[in-house]
């Protein structure tokens, strides 16, 4: 499990894995020496606290994987910066996302080969609860290269 998470981010390490009846629950932590303030861009290595984020990751076998990660918040010590504390950001887990970007990629691959309703059903086979509306939102958010779109070939 550690290797699977490390493919997401090398700084991740698993602290516990619990095989539950309907899912694999993973606790993990992020080793980080600092991060850049999203407002002023200055680097900080003065830790404020830890906060947790929980998300669904790609299934292991046919079991859904839920990951709870403890990650740091940092002080911004830059004079004049309005942001006194900020949370570490993860590019593979956008703010407010409850699914990792690699799980979204898998769902997107399904959604581009079948209907949103079918995608919803296939996902539920793997314990991933996503509504067909959420599948559609994911499709609409996907940037499609114009040269790859058959609808725009001869423009
Ligand atoms: Zn700042």
What is the beta-strand fraction? 25-35%
Q: What Rg is obtained from the alpha carbons, in whole angstroms? A: 19 Å
Shape: globular
Order of SSEs: HEEEEEEEHHH
Topology:
Layout: H1 2-8, E1 12-19, E2 24-30, E3 35-36, E4 43-44, E5 47-60, E6 63-75, E7 85-87, H2 101-111, H3 116-125, H4 132-141
Parallel strand pairs: 2-6
Antiparallel strand pairs: 1-2, 3-4, 5-6, 6-7
Helix pairs in contact: 2-4, 3-4
Short summary:
The chain contains four helices and seven strands, in the order αβββββββααα.
Overall description:
The chain is of the alpha+beta class and 155 residues long. It has 4 helices and 7 strands. The chain has helices at 2-8, 101-111, 116-125, 132-141; strands at 12-19, 24-30, 35-36, 43-44, 47-60, 63-75, 85-87. The strands form 2 sheets. Strands 1, 2, 5, 6 and 7 form a 5-stranded mixed beta sheet that branches. The protein has a two-stranded antiparallel sheet with strand order 3-4. The longest helix is centred in the C-terminal third of the chain and has 11 residues, at 101-111. The radius of gyration is 19 Å and the shape is globular. Bound molecules: zinc ion.
Entry keywords:
155 residues; alpha+beta; 25% helix; 2 domains; two-stranded antiparallel sheet; binds zinc ion; 5-stranded mixed β-sheet
